[in-house]
Write a structure and sequence with these properties.
45% helix; Arc Repressor Mutant, subunit A; 3-stranded antiparallel β-sheet; transcription regulation; Jelly Rolls; alpha+beta; 290 residues; 11 strands
Length: 290
């Protein structure tokens, strides 16, 4: 897998949650080099492909589980297997948040070695991957408090895996992004996430952040490898995916909450993005729960 330019990614938000979880089903997973400030736990099922972390590659099959430390560039790609959908369960959590929990709860301090080893990317045993799947699969159907308890149980299972191994020899694989630019793009992305329900243009961002249209476009090209409009569309549709999966809100209400005033336009763009209509996308998770 060729190491292309790394894009800075913003994991999807979950309103009312301190950590983030998403279940993704797709026919084929494209290669996208990215990194982010959060830890990422990625579980792949019904999968044939390759994972790359920094310059290390490892094969990915059914029940492959990795914990990737903050700012490690990585990408996962799959082969198209006829009649089989790739299933990915992804958990993201911030370093500052988990460290606050560990400082307050002595029981969690045993997680320190796990988090330190994740800077080299940890690959877990298939048994642990199956145990994590059993914990996460029904997680979205439980209360926020029960979901937090599940998250902590997942970390406990990971910490007890004596067969886990690190993939990188050193932590040199972490990407370096200019602190000032990182801070600026973080503020812009936070603004977009808070205001995605409203119409937002480049000119609007320029006024808020006292920057020219061209400088904002350059930030998105440098950090995400795409235009501002493309990023905003993916942000809105990604949030819609979470709402379709985890709530029973009407599709029209979800479309409006992510900035689409025209339902037909939302349906068309969603199908281009996920190759399913919003109703079909929601339906596949209902079938999975039954």
């Amino acid at each position: 897998m060729r190491h292309k330019k790394t894009a800075l990614e913003k994991p999807p938000r979950r309103e009312g949650f301190s950590w983030r979880y998403r279940k993704i089903k797709q026919q084929q997973k494209p290669t996208l080099w990215h990194c982010h400030e959060e830890y990422e736990l990625a579980l792949h099922r019904h999968f044939v492909g390759t994972a790359a972390v920094s310059h290390h590659e490892t094969p990915v099959g059914h029940n492959h589980l990795m914990l990737i430390g903050p700012n490690l560039p990585h990408a996962v790609t799959s082969k198209d297997v006829e009649g089989q959908q790739c299933e990915t369960h992804v958990v993201w959590f911030r370093e500052s948040w988990i460290k606050q929990l560990m400082a307050s709860c002595e029981e969690l301090r045993n997680l320190t070695p796990l988090l330190e080893r994740s800077k080299l990317c940890i690959e877990f045993s298939e048994r642990t991957a199956e145990d994590v799947f059993q914990l996460l699969d029904d997680c979205p159907n439980t209360s926020p408090i029960d979901q937090l308890a599940t998250f902590l149980q997942v970390l406990s299972v990971l910490a007890q895996d004596s067969q886990s191994k690190t993939l990188l020899p050193t932590a040199l694989g972490q990407t370096n992004i200019d602190d000032a630019e990182r801070a600026k793009i973080e503020k812009i992305c936070d603004y977009l996430a808070r205001n995605m329900a409203k119409p937002i243009t480049l000119a609007d961002l320029g006024k808020v952040f006292h920057a020219s249209d061209s400088s904002i476009q350059r930030l998105f090209a440098d950090h995400f490898g795409e235009s501002f409009s493309s990023y905003l569309k993916k942000l809105r549709l990604g949030h819609a995916c979470s709402e379709l999966q985890m709530t029973t809100k009407p599709i029209g209400l979800i479309a409006e909450s992510v900035g689409y005033r025209n339902l037909s336009n939302f349906n068309r763009q969603f199908k281009q993005y996920k190759h399913l209509t919003p109703r079909e996308y929601r339906g596949q998770f209902k079938r999975g729960a039954s």
